[in-house]
From TrEMBL:
Gene Ontology CC terms: plasma membrane
Protein name: ABC transporter permease
Entry keyword annotation includes Cell membrane: yes
Classification via PANTHER family: DIPEPTIDE TRANSPORT SYSTEM PERMEASE PROTEIN DPPB-RELATED
Stated family: Belongs to the binding-protein-dependent transport system permease family.
Membrane-spanning intervals of the chain: 9-30, 95-118, 130-161, 181-200, 235-257, 285-307
Species of origin: Rhizobium deserti
Membrane topology: Multi-pass membrane protein
Record-level Gene Ontology MF annotations: dipeptide transmembrane transporter activity
Length: 316
């Protein structure tokens, strides 16, 4: 087991290094000069050259990449051109909004999708299965930002139950902060719940035809107990896979939703950095998103090994 873990960790480190090089190269190829954008069109060539030197933009690409990589390894993500503060502090500050939002969306999608998918599998081709399928199709078809607008119109404008946008900060209290995240979390969760419903339904249907489930029924267990105690635990691998992918999709997909609800999260920070050509913030945020995706895949791999002993034996 330890050898498997070491191989997975080495693969994670190599993947992160390759991804960091790709991110830095692509950001460097983007059109426009950050120094010129910061100074404007009226800046003199001498002033422009001085700012480029101050920002390190006059150095060769390999030198700048190594300096950036060493800084990242030390926890120094550089200084934002636009905000004039360390990027690490910006990411931590914005993560305090995006991370709870993504966690709320994951919890909501699981609470909606897993019972719905399991019950749809139990009532295969019945009315409940048809309703669950319609929910899945509609929720997948509606984009998260459009669903967010509909939620604002219904629950904020018409009913007045929820705030239409903004974030009061955690210092304003837990309840007001969570209340401002409910609608964006629902907007993010519904499309993912539609996907997870279909995955859970298909996985449970496959397992319900296995011999051990038929044996459980033959021993006198009710259909509900046979499904939840024997079928569902053995159908977890595709569900866990989708959950890992969903969490990263939710954080990356928060860009549009955070702008719709005017939330000061990582997605809004990435959008603002792109608009202001703040290269250092853009590449740090993209690297953070990429590292999160790779880390979640690593966690999903470990979850596979914990769930299915056959995978542990095969890996060994």
């Amino acid at each position: 087991m330890m050898a498997i873990l070491i191989r997975r960790i080495l693969s994670l480190v190599v993947t992160l290094l390759v991804v960091s090089l790709l991110i830095f190269t692509v950001m460097d190829l983007l059109p426009g000069d950050p120094a010129a954008i910061m100074l404007g069109t009226s800046a003199s060539p001498e002033t422009l050259a001085a700012l480029q030197h101050q920002l390190g933009l006059d150095q060769p690409l390999p030198v700048r990449y190594l300096a950036w990589l060493v800084g990242v390894l030390r926890g120094d993500l550089g200084q934002s051109y636009t905000y004039g503060v360390p990027v690490a502090g910006l990411i931590v500050e914005r993560l305090a909004v995006t991370l709870p939002l993504a966690l709320m969306a994951v919890v909501l999608s699981v609470l909606i999708a897993v019972p719905l998918g399991v019950q749809a599998a139990r009532r295969h081709n019945g009315l409940f299965d048809v309703v669950a399928g319609m929910f899945s199709y509609v929720s997948i078809a509606v984009p998260a930002f459009w669903g967010g607008l509909l939620l604002i119109i219904l629950f904020s404008t018409m009913l007045g139950w929820m705030p239409a946008g903004g974030f009061p900060g955690w210092e304003a209290g837990l309840l007001p902060a969570l209340k401002s995240l409910v609608l964006p979390a629902v907007a993010l969760a519904l499309p993912q719940a539609g996907v997870l419903t279909r995955v859970a339904r298909a996985a449970v249907l496959d397992v319900m035809n296995e011999d051990f489930v038929r044996t459980a029924r033959a021993k006198g267990l009710s259909e509900r107990i046979a499904v939840w105690r024997h079928a569902v635990p053995n159908a977890l691998i595709p569900v866990v896979t989708m959950l890992g992918l969903q969490f990263t999709f939710l954080i990356a997909g928060a860009v549009l939703v955070e702008n719709v609800f005017n939330l000061p999260g990582l997605g809004r920070l990435a959008y603002q950095a792109l608009a202001q050509r703040d290269i250092i913030v853009m590449q740090d945020v993209v690297l953070f998103f990429s590292a999160l995706v790779i880390l979640m895949n690593f966690i999903v791999d470990l979850a596979y090994l914990a769930i299915d002993p056959r995978l542990r034996a095969g890996a060994q």
